[in-house]
Amino acid sequence: MAQRTVQEYGAFARDIGQILYTEEQIQQRVRELGVQISADYEGKNPLLVGVLKGVLFFLADLLRAMTIPLEVDFIAVSSFSPQTRQQGYVRMIKDLDIPIGGRHVIFVEDVIDTGLTLNYILRTLRVHKPASLEVCTLFDKPAKRLIDAPVKYKGFDLPDQYVVGYGLDYREKYRNLPFVGLLAAHAFKDAAQEERSG
């Protein structure tokens, strides 16, 4: 299958400076992760936990790539502000609906950067005493890491640049692009101008 160019993805794809991972590369890696996790958790009925909203695309595709019985649940977290997020202050705004005590839990994330939010979530989940707790992320930004992140399953490394697509957003836009790419400089300027004119 021939790889598509940025322009073929529609008008707002003009804001993408460079594709880092194509739709085909992402789907192939997600399938590989699904096979690996299915083998590791055969007979364990794992619970996959995702954080809204960015993980929706990855988690949906990962679930379809898995071949074992499983359950899925979601949490939502929010930073108080960009400044406090850097200090690791995060609050839970939607908790789990399914009890995780004694369950084999896989925490699924779209991207891990500083590790601060991940650390908060894992500490919160461990309070409920799951039988096991592992982390699966599609994207990792190791250059941004401030705290160790115990990632067992990983898709791709990302550079320390602003990337969007496949769930990753800039001001809630670009999540629906099926690839991941670098956001062009003019997109930041356009957004700033919209804010001033709004």
Widest beta sheet: strand line-up: 4-3-2-5-6-7
Oligomeric state of shown chains: single chain
Work out the helicity level: 25-40%
Mean pLDDT: 87
Biggest sheet features: 6 strands, mixed
Structural class by SSE content: alpha/beta
N-to-C series of helices and strands = EHEHEHEEHEEEEH
Described by the principal axes of the CA atoms, the overall outline is globular
Beta content: 25-35%
Number of strands: 9
Please work out how many helical segments DSSP would assign.
5
Low-confidence parts lasting 5 or more residues at pLDDT below 50?
none
End-to-end distance: 43 Å
Radius of gyration: 17 Å
Describe the structure.
The protein is an alpha/beta fold. The chain is 29% helix and 27% strand. The protein is built from five helices and nine strands; from the N terminus they run E-H-E-H-E-H-E-E-H-E-E-E-E-H. It has helices at residues 23-40, 56-65, 82-86, 116-126, 185-197; strands at 16-21, 47-51, 71-79, 90-94, 104-112, 132-140, 153-157, 163-164, 180-183. The strands form two sheets. Strands 4-3-2-5-6-7 form a six-stranded mixed β-sheet. Helix 4 links the parallel strand 5 (104-112) and strand 6 (132-140). Helix 1 packs across helix 2. The longest helix is centred in the N-terminal third of the chain and has 18 residues, at 23-40. The radius of gyration is 17 Å and the shape is globular. It starts with 15 loop residues before the first strand and ends with a helix.
